[in-house]
Structure formats: C-alpha cells, structure tokens
UniProtKB/TrEMBL annotation:
Pfam family, one: AsmA
InterPro entries: AsmA, AsmA-related
Name by which UniProt lists this protein: AsmA family protein
Annotated stretches, region: Disordered: 315-334
Residue ranges constituting the AsmA domain according to the UniProt record: 1-264, 296-520
Residue spans crossing the bilayer: none
Species in which this protein is naturally found: Azonexus hydrophilus
Length: 629
C-alpha cells in the first residue's frame, strides 16, 4: 500500500471516529459518559489513547449541531500525540434528512494537527491503524459490494479547515517536512449521487511549510469546480513561493493561472498552465492519455530563461583540494553524496517538446533551442535537439539509461566561435578561431568521477584563422636555437599572455577509458607547420602531448634570420601536466639528434660542393656546363 493511500486511510479513520463520536452524542445526553465510552472503544480497537478534553455540545432543532473542543489521539505508545483537533462544529438541517437529503449549514474543523513518521526500518507510525485495511492476497475472493442504497443529495453551505498542521518525519534520512499552516475552504457544495454531479463554488487552499532549511508557500483559488458524469473542468489561479538560503536571491514567487479538465471514463486529463519567473514567460500544455500506467504528452515554451540565476554560486578553486608539490593533479574520489541515482526514470512514461527562445545554463548561452524528449522503460532520450550558439549551430542528441547509468552524447557544432564557447563552458580560453566540433561519446558510472574515467567514443575539431593560447611557438623556436648551442634546455609554464596564430587547425580523437588519444594534429601558418600526438587524460584532468614544429618559411628582419637557421629541423615540444597548470619543454635528445643529422647533411652538401669546385678547376671550367653544379 502506497504512503499516500495510507495517509488517505488515516484521514478516513479520523473522520470515522469523529462520526462515531457525533452519533453517540446524538443519542445520549451525558457528555462525560459519552467521552469515556468513545475513549474505551478507541483503546479496544487501536490500543491508542483518545482524549476529549473540551466540552461536547449538542443541539437538535432546527438543525442538528455537534460541537467539540480539544480532541487528541495518541501514538501507539500512548504517550505522544499522533493527531489532534482544537475544535469541531458540524451543523445539519433536520427536516431534509427525512427525505434523504443532507443539508449542512457549516462544517468547520480548527487546528487539526497530524504527524506521520517513517521509521529507520521503513515502517510507518500508522501501520497499526492500517492492520485491518491490508489488501487480501491474490486469488482471495473480495466481499460482494453492498447493494446501492437510496440516492443521496448533498447541499453544504461551506467547508472550512483552518490552521491545520501536518508533519512528515523521515528517520531514514533525518529530514523533516512541515506544513505549518493549512487553510482550506469552499463556498456552496452540491452533489447528487443519482445524477453523478458535483458542484463546488470558490474553493481555496493556502499553506505554508518548510523542508529542512527551506521554506515555501502555496495558494490556489478555483472559482468553480463542475463534475458532470465523469468529466470535470475548472479554471484556477494561485501562486507558489520558495525561500531558500541556497538561492542567490533567497526567494522566488511564481504566479499560476490555467485550466484543468479530467475525463475519468477515458482516463484522460488536460492542463493548461501559464506562469512567470522574473522576466521569463512560461507556458505549459499537458495532456494525460492514461492514468495507469501514467502516460502524458507535454509542450513547454519559454521565451527566455537564465538557469544560472537560480543556482548556488560555484565553489572557488581555493576551496577544493590543493595540488601537491610536483604538479601532480589530485585524483578525485567518488563520494556517496555524489552518487547519480537514475531510478526515477523507471517510473516515467511521456513524450514532449521544449522550446526556449534564449537560455543560459552552466554559463553556456544558446538561442532558439528546440528539443524533443521521450521517456519510457528507464530511458530518457532528447532527439533531435537543435539550437543557435556562439555564431553557429548545434544539432544532435542526448540519451540516459537508468539500467547501468549509461549516458550518450552525439553533437555537431558548426561555424562556432570556439574561444567564446570554451570561455563560458570551462572558464578557460585555450583556443581561438571559428569552425566545427563533433562529439560521439558514451559513458557509464555511479558518480561524476566514474563517468569521466569510463568515457569512450570519438571527437573531431576543425578551426580556421585562430590561435593556440598559452604557447608561443616562435619563442620556443628561439629557445631551440639556444639549445643547439648549449645542448641544454629548461621548461616553462604556459602563459595566457602568449599565443601562436594559425590559418588552419584540425585534429581527431579516439577516446577510451577516459583518455582521448590524438595522432593527427595538423596546424598550418604562413611560417610554420605543427603536428603531434599524445593523450588527454580526462579522468585525471591531465595532458601528455608531443608536438613537432617545423619552419617552412621565414619573415623579414632579425627574427626571420633567426628562424632561417632552423629550416629543415623539426622542433619537438612536450606539453604535460594538469589542465590548470600545463608546462612545456623542448625534447633535447630528439632536437640534438635531428640537428646532428641536419649538420651531417649540410657537411655532405658542403663536401660535394667543394669536390665540384676542384673538379671544375682541373678541367679549367670547360666541363662546368656539362655537370651544372
């Protein structure tokens, strides 16, 4: 039996007890004797203590009215209160009862307080009250339904539940949720069981509460509810408010308005809802096509939304674990509270569309976002998903599978400004340029650390007219010249003030075990060519990459003269270290070996040239034209 059903049964038991109490009062006149008898009956049936502390009043003409003061029902231990009512008044017209018609002048309950507790073993503090309500085993015959009695007509001037309080304590999590002030009222309520009609005027519900350190308030107003046959329709309006220390603005409010329609015969319902969140205008259309199992379609439209505005600020880098001496990045360990629980997907079954005009989330800014979403059998798929971003476009799909905690990403970003994208996405600007980026990756795991380490798939990058920031290849080449003279080289830390321009840059990556491998880097500029190969360890946030630079042309002036001396030599540059503290160094051994080969080749050419010159001298220059050089 579900928790909500158990709660409903508890309320039914409470009101049944009140009805029994009212019935006894009708028949007897000794209020104290009545209270004793009711308490004894409750103790016999439930083992709990019922206390009627206030006066019980009765009037029988021209209306049957029952008034009761403080009434409380204990927990099973008989010591603490489980439920209590400060006062109760029910007034029913006498004469209409004789013709099977219930006319109530007023039904008022003041100060209802109810506490539900989920114990550490998973049981509830109402399980003893539900002992007789347990469902019968499969195959066991259910008692025959009683024959229908005389149709009942109900006409109540109004219902009122004032200052009610509800507390839910979950001892398994240590969390307490409270509804500290519940006010519920209606205008005239009319029902006819024969015609299957129900009409309620001016239904209002308002409540305030808290959950942990957060507080909230909710209010809704339905001017009229009409049920004819099995169809119900009602407009509504209200507001929802939240106060939380986790919100940057501390509090927010949502005005609500819309229309609800339900068709019980077809197990269908529809909801139209409009609201505003600060400057965001939000509209939702929801259509339920089945109640059991629940299935629905939705269409959500938002003109603009800044999600980051409602998220807690990111923790500063200094608040995290410090990098140990030597540049080794700390390996993050998954924590229990970082666990990713996708079990809720197993209960979802829907299709829908989300359209957002302007969106900012986790620093990323997109426009014209259009996503189709479907959930079934523990899977959530967003496909297709299109948007405009950073001067270009996005087209792709996302997938999540609760079975195995599997995530898939397939995205194609075309003609984007890579610098602005990376600046917003990772708060770093390692690249400049415009071009395309493609991703086709998957991963699985129970926390973020596991997801990074299990990443697999492929990616590709094509950029034009940009720059690699943090590395000045020209300066490295001048350092290489010094190495050739001294035979020694040092290392340096990448600097955001340095960069190397390029006309084209392409690279592809094969990703396995959280490590992206590249073997085909190609960067071209008017003066240089750069290739390379290496690993980007995403799981450990480190890089180990060997880039190879060669001079293909030289500029004018002193710098051009210096670079000319390096033509024909490949300069190996090693980049390594954590993402946030990269360093680079020249591979001295390879550089000197390459330089030595170049010197040998140069010496060969020199000897060949001298041999030719001597031969030309011996022949007196007569054979010069024959041999040419």
């Amino acid at each position: 039996m579900s928790v909500m059903r158990k709660i409903a049964v508890v309320f039914a038991v409470l009101f049944a007890l009140l009805a029994v109490a009212a019935g006894v009062v009708y028949a007897l006149f000794d209020a104290e004797a009545i209270k004793r008898q009711i308490a004894e009956q409750v103790a016999t049936k439930t083992g709990r203590v019922l206390t009627i502390g206030g006066e019980v009043g009765l009037s029988i003409w021209p209306e049957l009215a029952v008034r009761a003061g403080r009434v409380s029902l204990s927990e099973a231990d008989g010591k603490t209160d489980f439920a209590a009512i400060d006062s109760l008044r029910v007034a029913v017209a006498v004469m209409p009862l004789l013709s099977g018609r219930l006319e109530a002048r007023e039904i008022e309950i003041d100060g209802l307080a109810l506490t539900l507790i989920k114990r550490r073993d998973g049981s509830l503090n109402i399980d003893d009250l539900l002992a007789g309500q347990k469902e019968k085993p499969a195959g066991e015959a259910k008692p025959a339904a009683p024959e229908s009695s005389q149709p009942l007509q109900v006409d109540i001037a109004g219902l009122a539940l004032r200052n009610a309080r509800f507390t839910w304590r979950d001892q398994t999590t240590g969390k307490t949720t409270q509804l500290s002030s519940i006010d519920f009222s209606t205008g005239r309520l009319q029902a006819d069981s024969a015609a299957a009609t129900l009409a309620i005027d001016a239904l209002k519900l308002a409540t305030r509460g808290s959950s942990g350190d957060d507080s909230f308030e909710f209010a809704i107003d339905m001017p009229a509810i009409r049920l004819a046959g099995q169809r119900l329709e009602t407009p509504f309006s209200g507001n929802l408010g939240l106060v939380s220390s986790k919100l940057p603005m501390r509090s927010l409010k949502l005005p609500l308005s819309g229309k609800l329609a339900v068709d019980l015969a077809k197990s269908s319902a529809s909801l139209g809802l409009d609201t505003r969140l600060d400057e965001s205008k939000i509209g939702l259309q929801l259509a339920v096509e089945g109640f059991s199992p629940l299935f629905f379609n939705f269409d959500l439209k938002v003109d603009q939304l800044n999600v980051d505005r409602y998220l807690p600020p990111k923790a500063s880098a200094s608040a995290g674990q410090a990098t140990p001496t030597g540049g080794e990045a700390p390996v993050a360990k998954g924590k229990a509270d970082d666990a990713i629980d996708l079990s809720a997907l197993n209960e979802l079954n829907f299709r829908g569309r989300v359209a957002i005009g302007q969106l900012q989330a986790q620093g990323l800014k997109v426009s014209a976002l259009d996503a189709r979403i479907a959930a079934a059998n523990g899977r959530l798929d967003i496909s297709p998903m299109t948007a405009r971003l950073y001067g270009g476009s996005l087209d792709g799909a996302l997938g999540v599978n609760a079975r195995g905690n599997v995530f898939t990403v397939r995205q194609k970003l075309a003609d984007i400004d890579i610098r602005e994208l990376m600046k917003d996405a990772i708060d770093k600007e390692p690249l400049e340029g415009r071009g395309s980026l493609s991703l086709d990756v998957s991963t699985r795991g129970g926390n973020a650390d596991a997801l990074k380490r299990a990443l697999a798939g492929q990616a590709a990058l094509e950029l034009r007219d940009g720059a690699v920031r943090g590395v000045n290849v020209g300066k490295m080449l001048r350092d290489a010249k010094a190495v050739l003279k001294s035979g020694q080289a040092g290392s340096a830390t990448a600097s955001t003030t340095e960069k190397t321009d390029f006309a084209e840059l392409t690279a592809s990556f094969r990703i396995a075990g959280g490590v992206a491998r590249n073997d085909d880097l190609a960067m071209k500029s008017p003066l240089l060519r750069l290739g390379g190969a290496g690993d980007i360890d995403i799981g450990n946030s480190r890089i180990d990459y060997l880039a190879k630079v060669s001079v293909v042309n030289t500029a004018q002036g002193q710098e051009g003269k210096e670079l000319a001396e390096l033509r024909g030599i490949t300069i190996p540059i090693r980049l390594r270290g954590p993402f946030d503290k990269l360093s680079y160094s020249l591979e001295v051994g390879d550089l000197l070996k390459d330089a030595a080969k170049a010197k040998v080749e140069e010496k060969k050419q020199e000897l060949k040239q001298k041999a030719n010159e001597k031969l030309q001298e011996k022949l007196g220059g007569k054979l010069q034209g024959l041999f040419g050089k």
